[in-house]
Amino acid sequence: MEGLGFYGFGALTLLGALLMVTSRNPLHGVLWLVVSFLGLSGLFGGLGAHFLAAIQILVYAGAILVLFLFVIMLLNLRPDDVERMPTFSLRGGVGGFLVGVVGFCAVVGSVVMGTGAFAKPVAGLPPLEAGAADVAIPLFSTALLPFEVVSLLLLAAIVGSVALTKRRLP
Amino acid sequence: MTPLLAALPPVTVQHYLLLSGLLFAVGLVGVLFRRNIIIVLMCLELMLSAANLAFVAFSRVHGNLQGQVMVFFSIAVAAAEAAVALSIIIALYRARGGVDVEDAAEMKG
Amino acid sequence: MGPELAPFAWAILFAPLAAAGVAGLLVRRRRGLAAAVAVSGMAVGLLCTLYLLARSLGAGEGEPTGFVHNVDWIRAGAFTARFGVVADRLSLLMALVVTGVGTPIFVYSIGYMHGDEGYGRFFACLSLFAFSMLGIVLSTNLLQTFVFWELVGLSSYLLIGFWFGKDSAVEAGKKAFMVNRVGDFGFLTGIILLCWSAASLPSFAGRNPLDFADLAAFYRAGGYEELAKASPHLLGLPVPALAALLVFCGAVGKSAQFPLHVWLPDAMEGPTPVSALMHAATMVAAGVYMICRVFFLFEPFPEALHAVAWIGGLTAFMAATIALVQTDIKKVLAYSTLSQLGYMVMAVGLAGATAGMFHLTTHAFFKALLFLCSGSVIHACHSQEITEMGGLRKAMPSTFWTWIIGTAALVAVPGTAGFFSKDEILAAAAHGEHASLPLLVVGLVTAGLTAFYMLRCTALTFFGEYRGHGHPHESPAVMTLPLWFLAVPALLVGWLGFPLLFHGHPWFQGEFGITGVKVHEGPHEFHLPLALVGTAFAAAGGILGWMVFGARRIDAAAWKERLLPLHTLLSRKYFLDEFYLWLVRTVQQGIAECSDFFEQNVLIRGVVDGLSAAVKASGRALRELQTGSIHTYVRFALAGSVLVVAWVILSAARGGNG
């Protein structure tokens, strides 16, 4: 069951990512990214991070990507624009292939080098309870200051967004 | 289907890290070679998520929730980043009438 | 005699300064008062000098004949500069010359400058000069000397260019100032070299390297050998000898020795009392006085003394020959002054401080007298050309007779002041420690030339028929009285040094300066044969001069034709002015233009423009990196992170292996 979850959600995530990167229409791209994030949420669940799995769906897939959709709608791209949407060039394709190969090799290399606990099956690790209440304890104790700082960051982002998109009055 | 799964090696944390790396590489390729700025931004989100996956995997290995707290923050920062970046995209679109990153090349020396 | 008399010495110094301040700042409009203040400032100085000199000469056996009084002036860490007064026989004698010649000249100026617009300014400047000059005389250390040295240069500049409406006066002032800069540069370099090398010696510890008394004591204890050993030879000379010669450079400038003598004849553009006081009697003698004061620097180094003597001899001879053909009465006297200054310097080089100071003293009186006489003549004739004078002996009897006395002293007629001092110089050249036959010949020939040009000048000015305009008349008493006042010492001051007369109490022998002027033991001998030979040379020159210009037995014009190249050479002053002009206009200008060319083409076009072109080119090359494309920047960022990750992994792997 463990293996089924990983391979299934992993394939879903990777597939969504690849289709997002290669999609010509950004609207399709957002939808493929939603698919990818749903898979990622499943992987989080597989690792026992249930709270984060929920957050991933609610905040990422639910809020942030909906924001993307809003923006794309707001820009009101006509079919012409969609057709003219820039996509890969030959150079880009070759470069992307090289970067992908190099990145893949690096990752595989690092995994092969990994030893110890990394090589143990996840199922064999001691259980880790990570529900909302469990995550809340460190979040509101040791990480209280960063938590508050993040709230300030969000406020700054709100103000910044408003300032950036506000139309200048003539 | 079950025999096929049974034939595969058991899932380790390394598998998660491998997947995280692949996602990161896919996102990076998108950032490097896509010209549609909206796609580029989505690729950035993908890279962030790939990093989040690695965090969660480490958290699992070490039995420590700090990694998940970090992911929580990471998601919050990603939300802020997305908001500001989308505002910039809107401003850029208004100024240029397009969403091609190559259009915004005023910094050319 | 001790430091309890210091207030008198300070009074000598500061009375003229107070007079300068009062005359220059307070009473510029009340001319008579300004003059009176200046004269009384000088008179106070004279009285104090006489009192101190009397105390010094009256000092009993074993009693000091002088004192030094210092106050700290500048203190900076280990460095201390003092400011003080020294009152020994050397400085008091010089102060006597300055104040004793200065006072009658100040009085004379009342008449001579009468009606001049800058009357108050004149007396202020003159008093300032007196202050500066007395500052040199009474100085206790090299720094103080240098400061007053420059002050004297300033007052000289102010007074040469006194009539600043006249271009030639302005030019002459500038020339004097600039030529003196050359000498002063050497002087300052010498001071620095000396102090720097002395102060670095451990055995010098506890002394002040600027102080005359400390330096002299150090030298007397054999310190110059240590100095010579401690530092490497520079320019082939031991450092102390080089320092002495550099200090001598200052004297060469101020005392107008060859090759820096060119400013003195031009300085005659100033009012005649200025010429008499500064450019004949006192300021130009400051160089000689200064060498005497620091004679201990030269004493251990015969080569330095030889250089000094030869510079002096050369100047004496060269200036005397130029004086033969001058037609301006002041120029004749100016070259005569140069010649006599050369004599003094030669005397210092040959026989030491006493002979030089003796001649300085006698010369100051008779040359000041001659200048004042010439001033009187100029005042009467409104011309300085002796070709426009003549027959003045009847119109101006006082001037004539005092002139004759001055001439007699200059020509060294036996019994007059110049006779004794000149004899001592010749004796030193003949029999002295550093006797030198060539210099003796130079001295004798110069004596003959001196008699020739003085007789020529006298004959053309006072005998024959008057060739000028108007009717010359005798000057007022305020001008003639100082002439007589100076005529007395011009006749008699030499007897003070006459060995046979003041045998038991010689002024110019025995202990002379408390700051280390060593004097040979015993009274100077009087050399009758040498005196006769010297007199014979002078008589020959004088008779020849009289034959040509007085009795007109020899046709001057014909001889001039015959010796035309020589005459041209002399009347153009050996073309030295032309040479200096060439030096400045061609050589210096050429160097400047070469440097300019180098700067413009190599430094600016090559280095500066090259640098900027390189920067531009590299900038142009590097701007290609700035594509403005986000993708490029991301690629660079990626490459950077790959490098960092690679480095981390590699160093981790190496650390793991190690």
What is the structure about, briefly put?
The complex is a heterotrimer of chains A (170), B (109) and C (658). Helices cover 76% and strands 0% of the residues of chain A. Chain A has 170 residues and is mainly alpha-helical.
Please, could you describe this protein's structure?
The complex is a heterotrimer of chains A (170), B (109) and C (658). By secondary structure, chain A is mostly helical. Helix content of chain A is 76%, strand content 0%. Chain A has a domain at 1-88: Four Helix Bundle (Hemerythrin (Met), subunit A) (Up-down Bundle), CATH 1.20.120.1200. Chain A is globular, with a radius of gyration of 20 Å. Chain B is mainly alpha-helical and 109 residues long. Chain C is mainly alpha-helical and 658 residues long. Classes of the chains: A mainly alpha (170), B mainly alpha (109), C mainly alpha (658). At the A-B interface, helix 1, helix 2, helix 3, helix 5 and helix 6 of A face helix 2, helix 3 and helix 4 of B.
State the main characteristics.
heterotrimer, B: 109 residues, mainly alpha, Helix Hairpins, elongated, C: 658 residues, two-stranded antiparallel sheet, 26 helices, 2 strands, 71% helix, 3% strand
